[in-house]
Each structure stands twice: as C-alpha cells, then as structure tokens.
C-alpha cells in the first residue's frame, strides 16, 4: 500500500523569504500523480500544484515549485517570496493512475502547518 | 460554477442521534469522494463512488456509517447512532473521470460535526 509522510508538523518563515516543505512517499508503482493541497483556516482544500511521475521536469505555479526526486521518492514544495496569505496547513497527496475508468483515491500526508511571520 | 456544495456547514448533536451529511458534486463530475479529517488521523478517505456506484468503502469505520448516491447530483453520508469519536470535519470532493487522468479533486467546504 502507498504511504505519504510529512515529517515537519510545523514550519515558520519570514514574509518575503523562501521555505521548503518536505514530503516523502512509498509506492511500488512507476506511474502516479503527486499533489500539494493548501488548507487555510477557512478549511477549504485548495490545490496548489501537481506533478505527474512520468515527467522529469519539476512543476511550477507562480511562487510555488516542487523538487520531484523520483528515485528518492521525495516531493518537496518550495514557496518563494512568502506572503501572509500563504499561512495554512499544507498536505502532500499521492494518487495512483486511473485504470479501467476508475478514479483512485488520494492518499494524504499528515500535513505541515506553515506560519508566516510579518 | 458553484463548486461542491455541502450541508450543513456545522452540526452539533448528542450521542446516539442520527446524523446525515449532504453533498452536491460539481455538475458533470462522475466521481465523488467522502473524506474525514481529525487531528489524530488526519485526512482519510471513507468511501468513493464512480457513476453513482460505490467503488471502495474500505475506509468506512464501522456499520454505523453508511453512504448513498441515488443520482449524479446528490450523495449522503449517514451516521447512526453517532458517537463523540465521530466528531470531525467531513469533506466531500468530486472529479470527472475523463482524461486527462491527473484531474484534481475539487473539495467542498466541509461539515464540522460535533457529537456531545
């Protein structure tokens, strides 16, 4: 079974600085998808960025980028120029590829609570 | 688009009572997921449906929990009887089955359930 581990329960960053959140996963599959979700105090789950395992290029979305190391099964999130609005819980998630038309479930890590200091 | 709609947003009930949580997925999405979030266990999948059919209910904690999807636009998660340990935030999410296969799951705002 696949597992996702986030070893940093809490992180803190100064406004305008850069922070990296760690995520590792375990799987025997060669094709899969990885996601970072943000959950602000409103509780809404918001997709931040996603990565397909077959793509070697790291995904980037504005100030958010990932460092995907497939051999090491590592998927870290880098937030550049941190803003107060980035303060939230961040979840790393894994999903198997769709097979036979069936959508597979997301497997979440335990989350990292990010505080942004003004 | 209104997004995934969940009701109620907050529910407070007493132990032993029946609780029904409701979800309306995004129109056109044919996969629906129920998740539960607690401090102790984090986010865990309870059950998911494809085209209104339950595919994987291995995450449903016990017989007190049941879920239905009578049509493509409505699903319920019922707890009967409720217990204090059921207190959690319950999320509903939906996604289309069509390619591309990396479609994200769109989450509703969640229902915060408190069982006294």
Description:
The complex is a heterodimer of chains A (118) and B (116). Chain A is mainly β. In chain A, strands 2, 5, 6, 10, 11 and 12 form a six-stranded mixed β-sheet that branches. In chain A, 0% of the residues lie in helices and 50% in strands. The model of chain A has no long low-confidence stretch (mean pLDDT 92). The termini of chain A are far apart. By secondary structure, chain B is mostly beta strands. Helix content of chain B is 0%, strand content 53%. Chain B has no helices and eleven strands. Chain B has strands at 5-7, 10-13, 19-24, 31-38, 42-50, 53-56, 65-71, 74-79, 88-95, 106-107, 111-115. In chain B, strands 2, 4, 5, 6, 9, 10 and 11 form a seven-stranded mixed β-sheet that branches. Chain B has a four-stranded antiparallel β-sheet with strand order 1-3-8-7, with no helix packed on it. The radius of gyration of chain B is 14 Å and the shape is globular. Chains A and B meet through strand 6 and strand 11 of A and strand 5 and strand 9 of B.
List the topology elements:
The complex is a heterodimer of chains A (118) and B (116).
Chain A: E1 3-5, E2 10-14, E3 19-21, E4 24-26, E5 33-39, E6 46-52, E7 60-61, E8 64-69, E9 74-79, E10 88-95, E11 106-108, E12 112-117
Parallel strand pairs in A: 2-12
Antiparallel strand pairs in A: 1-4, 3-9, 5-6, 5-10, 7-8, 8-9, 10-11, 10-12
Chain B: E1 5-7, E2 10-13, E3 19-24, E4 31-38, E5 42-50, E6 53-56, E7 65-71, E8 74-79, E9 88-95, E10 106-107, E11 111-115
Parallel strand pairs in B: 2-11
Antiparallel strand pairs in B: 1-3, 3-8, 4-5, 4-9, 5-6, 7-8, 9-10, 9-11
Descriptive terms for the model:
heterodimer; A: six-stranded mixed β-sheet; four-stranded antiparallel β-sheet; B: 116 residues; mainly beta; seven-stranded mixed β-sheet; globular
């Amino acid at each position: 079974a696949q597992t996702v581990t986030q070893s940093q329960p809490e992180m803190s960053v100064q406004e305008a600085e850069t922070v990296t959140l760690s995520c590792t996963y375990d799987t025997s599959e060669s094709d899969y998808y990885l996601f970072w979700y943000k959950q602000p105090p409103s509780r809404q789950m918001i997709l931040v960025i996603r990565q397909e395992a077959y793509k070697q290029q790291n995904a980037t979305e504005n100030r958010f980028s990932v460092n995907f190391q497939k051999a090491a099964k590592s998927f870290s999130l880098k937030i550049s120029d941190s803003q107060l609005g980035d303060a939230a819980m961040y979840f790393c998630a894994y999903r198997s590829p769709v097979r036979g038309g069936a959508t597979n479930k997301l497997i979440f890590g335990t989350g990292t609570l990010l505080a942004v200091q003004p | 688009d209104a997004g995934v709609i969940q009701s109620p947003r907050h529910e407070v009930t007493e132990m032993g009572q029946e609780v029904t949580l409701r979800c309306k997925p995004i129109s056109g999405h044919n996969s629906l997921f129920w998740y539960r979030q607690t401090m102790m266990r984090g986010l865990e999948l309870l059950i998911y449906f494809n085209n209104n059919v339950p595919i994987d209910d291995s995450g449903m904690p016990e017989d007190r929990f049941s879920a239905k999807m009578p049509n493509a636009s409505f699903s319920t998660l019922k707890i009967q009887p409720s217990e204090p340990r059921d207190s959690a935030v319950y999320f509903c999410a939906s996604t289309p089955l069509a390619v591309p296969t990396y479609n994200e799951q769109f989450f509703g705002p969640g229902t915060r359930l408190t069982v006294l």
